[in-house]
Give the backbone structure.
Amino acid sequence: MPYLNQYDAGATDLADFFTDEPDFTPYSSVAPDPRVFDPAKALDPLDEELQWEAPAESPVIDDVEVMQARAAVEDERRAKGRTDSP
């Protein structure tokens, strides 16, 4: 199967993470450390600042038209000698 995009082409091969023989030894899960990640705060539906429409308004991943438009803007900035991003 060929690469789907440039990110797939540059991805690290994860074959070393897998084995031909599965290990069925049971394990005990560990709760996340709330100092690092608090699942209760990850998605608070009552958060007044949460922008529910944001995912629907974001561009489709690898949308050629969006990528070409962004590239055109960057090319124009470079041509004018600007290097700052929007």
The mean pLDDT is 84. Helices lie at 6-9, 39-42, 54-57, 64-79. The first helix runs from residue 6 to 9.
